[in-house]
Amino acid sequence: MKKLPIYLDNNSTTPVDQRVIDEMVCYLRDDFGNEGSRTHSFGAAAKKAVQGARYGFAELIKGDPEDVIFTSGATESCNIAIQGLGRWGLENNKKHIISSSIEHKAVLEPLDYLSKNGFEVDYIKTNTDGQINLEHFERLLRPSTLLVSVMSVNNETGIIQPIQEICNILQNSEAYFFCDASQSFGKTFTLTENQRIDLTAISSHKIFGPKGIGALIVRKRKHKKVPLTPIFFGGGQERGLRPGTLAVHQIVGFFLASKLAKKECSSRFEACLKIKQEILRNFSVLKPVFNGDQSKCMPNVSNISIPGINSEAAIVSLKDLIAVSNGSACTSASYKPSHVLEAMGLDKDRIYEAIRISWSHLTPELPYPDIIKRLMALKKN
Known about the structure:
By secondary structure, this protein is an alpha/beta fold. The protein has two domains: 6-15 and 265-380, Alpha-Beta Complex (Aspartate Aminotransferase, domain 1), CATH 3.90.1150.10; 18-262, Aspartate Aminotransferase, domain 2 (3-Layer(aba) Sandwich), CATH 3.40.640.10. Helices cover 37% and strands 13% of the residues. The strands form three sheets. A seven-stranded mixed beta sheet has the order 2-8-7-6-5-3-4, sandwiched between helices. The chain has a three-stranded antiparallel beta sheet with strand order 9-10-12. The longest helix is centred in the first third of the chain and has 21 residues, at 41-61. The two termini are 33 Å apart.
């Protein structure tokens, strides 16, 4: 059997935990009923499983079960959160939105759609350290602001955004706050407990759960619901915000993956931090430049530029040793310069040299001598 490269692209997706697979199989093979079927035991078993997951998520986020809307993933959650406020914004003359230019395309493209349909969207400047500029954000905020949308952790750089500081600034604002927490949920749980964040997108396949399932956490503001309207229709499931037959096996798998992430959070963090220290120490001979302040970075990722080595050439040269990327998986089909690194003000050469390395607590020891040897050969050429 051909030896596979070591997987270092965990920010794009993670393998499914075997414990999660075992749990899901039961709802594919035995308790396979439709959660909406009320006339027999198969439907009752499915409904019980979904309710158990919903209540379990509520406990994890310190919220209510009805706060949890199951979706097909973070992209759908982002679209519901952003487009779902559109009608209310137009009706109430709240047509100003603030976001950042380093957001994932799942946020930027819905915002672009709204900007073409009566909304004004302002983008917060990004500092060279990879965090948004809070002073610029404060200047952009106005009484007519409908929504503020800022991700918790950038998917390309791993830089942690100042979410609590944003919440503090928004304390006296009526603007709704949406946070794409795809890259932080499961690695930390403090953000999803924050009551000032009205809408939060979370994803399963970033935390060793199945693809195709996520959730939108929708918190009440002073006992009032966020005025979301659905973006598609049919069936009325999930309080009418996400119609369609619920994927019971995926929901069960997502919840178990989340529960395991909570239980093992500290040990996973320490394991990832140890791997990061090893990577940085071994790569130091190449004199890499780090894209983003590493003191503000997650322990499971680094975005580095190696002077004189094009990232595409490096990825091809190393493909039988390690699997890495040079940006978001959603844009990898046709590579363009990273909009994230451009927003940080990095020069063209540094952007084209950038490689994202993202690992997990399961990542084995890397073949550093072989990796360094190949990269040094590229540097000479």
